[in-house]
Amino acid sequence: MGALDSLSEYISDYFHVSRKRRKRKVKQTVNIKVKMDCDGCERRVKNAVSSMKGVETVELNRKIHKVTVSGYVEPKKVLKRVERTGKKAEMWPYVPYNVVAYPYAVGVYDKKAPAGYVRKSEQSQPLPGAPDDVMMSLFSDENPNACTVM
Q1: Sequence-separated (6 or more) residues with CB below 8 Å from residue 64
Q2: What is d(CA 54, CA 26) in angstroms, rounded to the nearest whole number?
Q3: Are 142 and 117 in contact (CB under 8 A)?
Q4: What pTM was estimated for this model as a whole?
Q5: In terms of Cα–Cα distance, which of 25, 29, 81, 79 is closest to 52?
Q6: Domains in the chain, start-ordered, CATH in brackets?
């Protein structure tokens, strides 16, 4: 421990200096649906997003109209920046098909969704406390492996 360290500790005991601490941004990944038709659209969106402060990587997938931005950014600011390019943009509304309990529920199945994806919805999630489909079909007449005692 040096002389300056001990002096600063001695002074800090008598004087309390409060500093406002800034909130640290969290590193996150933002997925956005953007309609991109050509290389020019793709380049314009990529340049607009990559010039933002805190952006580390930008991935574009023109086939499924998806832009993935990762870094220390806020989702709303990324969405606004993409919309400023003149493209219609929204937060990524899809989830993988195998994650959803009821993929063909009303409002979940979307013909415009990329292959293997369905729209994110509250209806697609099973109700808490609802019996499992496996348990319901365990003693069903249509189940050939059901209990033979019945």
Answers
A1: 114, 117
A2: 10
A3: no
A4: 0.63
A5: 81
A6: 28-92 (3.30.70.100), 95-134 (no CATH)
Torsion, Cα of 43, 46, 49, 52 (10° steps): -90
Instruction: Return the DSSP state at 22.
Output: P
- Which residue is it, tokens 């063909």? 104
Alpha helices in the chain (DSSP H): 3-14, 39-50, 75-83, 133-136
DSSP 19-68: -PPPPPPPPEEEEEEE---SHHHHHHHHHHHHTSTTEEEEEEETTTTEEE
Task: Note down pLDDT in tens along the chain; length 150 residues.
Answer: 577 777 677 776 666 655 666 677 789 999 999 999 899 999 999 999 999 999 999 999 999 999 999 999 999 999 999 999 999 999 988 888 777 776 667 777 777 888 888 887 765 555 565 565 566 666 666 666 666 555
